[in-house]
């Protein structure tokens, strides 16, 4: 006897074939029959013609901290998502070292959310072990986040990494991959990722080749600089010999509408040369990110709190001299304007 039989469903089996009417038989937590199931089950569910499909994979999300506060993941499971990929866009809560701990927290909180408890981990492996202790309802995979690597080794320094610092980041990356991370994510729109040259990233990516790791990227610009930004990450992938995934490909700003087709041509050309390059897109025409991305990257050297103080402020917003200088530069040099 089977444990569960789901009957009369429209089955989409994930192979790419059209759906078909049928049943699903489950025993000991494993699907053992698909089609017309004749065996009886201890439990029977009549799907009444609704879709039965494998769980969906949310390949780009930022639930790294939310999963700890809400391990049941109701909002994902109710959408059919059973696997989440976290650590995207160079943003992740690990590696987390006390020396630059506050820099990392202020860096990721605008996207990952704010926590009012201490983070008890240091390495990516320790973070994943801590997540497992909370028994999340869905499956999780994570990237090693480049922003977290750079902060761990050199804070928010706006300069090229030294050879010693690059080796330090490579060591942390390799530790994360050994602990099960699926690759490296980079967020070139966000400081301190934006301080990094393509050559430095290509050197870091050489670690991925040992572990069949994937390079996933939030490119440097998704508006006026879309095409140069796509070319940059394709160059990094080709130089280091790793597969590339471009996250949320889009052309932001009315003047750039239509450039997505040119970006797709760049991807097609790379694939024609034998390189594994893919992308994903939003299923909607909106997006969100940090307000600090409107500032020139050099403003954020030293960390977000160096520019925007946190805590109570007076009714009149406190504008530090740095922002006054940004405003002056933006007016005198239109190429440096904060708004795209």
From TrEMBL:
Pfam families: Amidohydro_3. Keywords: Hydrolase. Residues 45-258 form the Amidohydrolase domain. GO terms for molecular function: hydrolase activity, acting on carbon-nitrogen (but not peptide) bonds, in cyclic amides. GO terms for cellular component: cytosol. Coiled coil: none annotated. SUPFAM superfamilies: Composite domain of metallo-dependent hydrolases, Metallo-dependent hydrolases. PANTHER family: COLLAPSIN RESPONSE MEDIATOR PROTEIN (PTHR11647:SF1), HYDRANTOINASE/DIHYDROPYRIMIDINASE FAMILY MEMBER (PTHR11647). This is Amidohydrolase family protein.
